[in-house]
Amino acid sequence: MLTPFHIAIPVRDIPEARDFYGTKMGFREGRSSDKWIDFDMFGHQFVVHLDESLGKDGSVNQIKNAVDGHGVPVPHCGVVLQMKDWEKLAEKMRNIVSDFIIEPYVRFKGETGEQGTMFFTDPTGNALEFKGFKDIEKELFAS
């Protein structure tokens, strides 16, 4: 069994983050204050922290690196899911996200490491990637 990861990211507005991650994405909220919120992201502890230096209209900076013909944003984080769960999430996100960085699709089709992937940002501009594999144990680190 994998142990849960913990990651913390900056956000420009706590109520906006609560709406996006809690209401829209459906992540259960754990502990919180007026400066941070713990979310349950598929069993992992995902924490948003208020970064007042961003201002209400600010966003985080990112660069993009080429992968499979797409510009992949750096930094980014997310969760690896079973393909059926990824497909459900992709469908849900199509109704929430109006501007994907990379639309949900199957990357490396027919090759080692074939995976569903999608990239989008939260309202602060934090890039998120969610991947789906048919057999995570065999395919996640296959070379």
Automatic annotation (TrEMBL):
It holds the Pfam family Glyoxalase. InterPro entries: Glyas_Bleomycin-R_OHBP_Dase, Glyas_Fos-R_dOase_dom, VOC_core. Gene3D superfamilies: 2,3-Dihydroxybiphenyl 1,2-Dioxygenase, domain 1 (3.10.180.10). Residues 3-133 form the VOC domain. This is VOC family protein.
